């Protein structure tokens, strides 16, 4: 009897579960400092493994792996910082879907990275040509704080 009761509860929960929202894809040129929750399709142009003395792996049992990857779409390029297993996915020439990405600032320039719930998926090769002359990571941003009067 307990199993029929629990299956009824499970069915009831499934019926009331909200439907998944369709992702809204962001173009690279629309990325702004301090924003998050981005989903985008991009080609990987280059990937360079980096040593970072203060890096912490997301997996406590392994040495952290980091790579700076230049990615882009038809509107521009940006540096994406890949962590651990992501480094293996970010091979030049690969097209990826990056979900739940955020913009971090490093020395005044934008870097794309994923947040805690982010994920990367390899997808079919994109048909667009990457606009390589609009690298958002080369634009220096100034941190301005507002002063209350």
From TrEMBL:
Coiled coil: none annotated. Residues 31-121 form the Single-stranded DNA binding protein Ssb-like OB fold domain. Gene3D superfamilies: Nucleic acid-binding proteins. PANTHER family: OS05G0244600 PROTEIN (PTHR31472). This is Single-stranded DNA binding protein Ssb-like OB fold domain-containing protein. It comes from Trifolium subterraneum (Subterranean clover). The lineage of its organism: Eukaryota, Viridiplantae, Streptophyta, Embryophyta, Tracheophyta.
